[in-house]
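Progress against Task 2.4 (sequence-to-structure conversion) is shown through the following example record, which the project officer requested during the mid-term review.
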Amino acid sequence: KKKKKKKKELDPENVAYYNNRAAAKTMARQYVSAIEDCRLALRIDPASYKVIFNISRIVEIKLNWKEKGN
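Structure tokens generated for the chain above:
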């Protein structure tokens, strides 16, 4: 049997892959790792509005979290 390659290995220039993974990490409250994926995506496409939106969601979540005293 052939081993299945990870999607990242198949297409390291795929902005959607990093952005979707960042969104999943955000849902899992892995914010630092999610921001790292967004940074990787922005290196590929600095004008990606979807990635910028994703970053803004993470920042908003973190700010709301801090305001609640967590």
